[in-house]
Specification:
Elements (H helix, E strand, L loop, with lengths): L1 H10 L1 H12 L11 H14 L3 E6 L13 E8 L2 E11 L18 E2 L2 E3 L3 H21 L4 E9 L10 H6 L10 E4 L4 E9 L1 E10 L14 H21 L16 E9 L19 E10 L5 H18 L4 E10 L2 E2 L5 H14 L4 E5 L5 H6 L6 E5 L12 E3 H19 L3
Parallel strand pairs: 3-6, 3-7, 7-15, 8-14
Antiparallel strand pairs: 1-2, 2-6, 4-5, 5-16, 8-13, 8-15, 9-11, 9-12, 10-11
């Protein structure tokens, strides 16, 4: 049984390569969210040919959706002749900006040896292609399967997923009564199972002051100095406290196994001038200073405590520092998510990895987040992991590539997973 499927997948090697190249050649840059409709049309044509019922779904009204940049998603479903579970492969179709430093055409799908190059090759069009080939090979080998296979291509993962998986989950497409197992083929490596990700909280903190002439700063109140006191409190109290907190989640790399915080930006005082302005700055005491923080928190931490810790520091400054005024505004919040190791999708993928490679799967968790958060929190579906080909460290980098052997191996694992979940024993 395995041999039939494996040889079918081997026969499709050229198709796997061509499919990956063609997906790379549709430049689905996000932001702003280009060519979502084009990639959905392409996937619809392909999947309809293999017997999938396809729905194109526009996330009307979602953040980022506009007539110029509509948020199109595709949901393809192939029902088996007998009842059973639904296995869903979810891939995001968007890619991040190209950036500098490329030596290959970022949208050419160039092949060199075992590698296919291009923006999105690894994150995650290679994974999308692998899941499609796995499903098609499985359908040809086992037309009598039980249950259903779904493949979705969704928008906006790189900008939070609100026009993609979050919207689809709100519409009920990830309800556990219609979907039972979800695999997200993000580039975690062909023998690793990603159980989930840390949480995140982005916020803007603003300190206030009073504008005055810069030669007489005592007549005003400097918002930048107030912010200096905030950063100092972070250095003295917050960062050391966070460094003491470790998670039981197998987050990679090791440095992300503790609570972390990045200060994304800081700005105080007069707005920066255009490059064509050649004059001097005016001398004013700044009356506002803003920072944006990106706090990544652990599944063992509670959001209220994470925010409360920052607010307590700010309140402490307010109590001891004359004229200290601040405001804090939430920008985004990501719930941490972790699927249990004994969940059916986890044990099944682990068995499939053992079948294909003859070794045990490694379990990892992601330092940043991906669409699992929406499937977990909005869809209330806990049986979800990330599993797919590609080297995570290449994501978003110049000369991004995906390995052809790596994709083939993952395709075999995905095919094995379908056999285990959709063929009644
Ligand atoms: Zn991704």
């Amino acid at each position: 049984m395995h041999q039939d499927l494996d040889s079918r997948i081997a026969d499709k090697r050229a198709d796997l390569i061509a499919l990956t190249q063609e997906l790379i050649r549709i430049p689905t840059l996000n932001p702003p969210g280009e060519n979502y409709r084009a990639i959905c049309d392409y996937l619809q044509t392909r999947l309809a040919r293999h017997g999938f019922d396809c729905q194109l779904l526009r996330a009307t009204g979602a953040p980022g959706d506009s007539d110029r940049y509509p948020r199109w998603n595709i949901l393809a479903r192939r029902e088996g002749p007998r009842p059973g579970d639904c296995v869903h492969f979810n891939s995001h179709t968007d890619v991040v900006e190209v950036g500098h430093g490329w030596t290959r055409d970022p949208f050419g799908g160039e092949i060199d040896g075992d590698r296919i190059y291009g923006r999105g090759s690894c994150d995650m069009k290679g994974g999308l292609a692998a899941s499609i080939i796995a499903a098609e090979a499985f359908l040809e080998t086992h037309p009598d399967f039980a249950g259903a296979i779904e493949i979705s291509g969704t928008a906006d993962e790189e900008s939070g997923g609100y026009g993609g998986v979050a919207w689809m989950a709100e519409q009920g497409y990830f309800n556990p009564d219609r979907v039972q197992h979800v695999i997200i083929p993000e580039p975690l490596g062909h023998d690793r199972i990603c159980l989930g990700h840390r949480g995140g909280w982005w916020a803007e903190i603003e300190t206030r002051g009073e504008i005055a002439h810069g030669s007489m700063p005592f007549l005003g109140d400097c918002a930048v100095r107030h912010m200096g006191a905030v950063l100092d409190a972070f250095e003295r109290e917050l960062f050391p406290a966070m460094a003491q907190r470790f998670t039981e989640m197998p987050v990679i790399p090791d440095g992300a196994r503790q609570s972390t915080m990045n200060i994304n930006s800081i700005h105080g005082g007069m707005a920066e001038q255009d490059v064509d302005y050649t004059g001097l700055p005016a001398c004013c005491v700044p009356d506002s200073c803003r920072i944006v923080i990106d706090r990544r928190y652990l599944i063992e931490e509670r959001f209220d405590d994470v925010k409360g810790e920052v607010v307590a520091l700010l309140e402490g400054l307010k109590a001891e520092r004359p004229r200290f005024e601040y405001e804090i505004r939430d920008i985004n919040r990501i719930t941490p998510s972790m699927t249990e190791r004994d969940a059916p999708v986890v044990t099944t993928v682990a068995e499939a990895i053992r079948d294909v490679f003859g070794r045990e799967a490694a379990y990892v968790a992601s330092p940043g987040s991906y669409d699992q958060k929406h499937i977990d929190r909005i869809g209330r579906l806990k049986n979800c992991i990330a599993y797919g080909p590609g080297v995570l460290e290449l994501a978003h980098k110049p000369d991004e590539w995906v390995g052809i052997e790596d994709m083939s191996s993952s395709t075999r694992v995905m095919g094995r997973v379908l056999q285990r979940l959709l063929l009644p024993q």
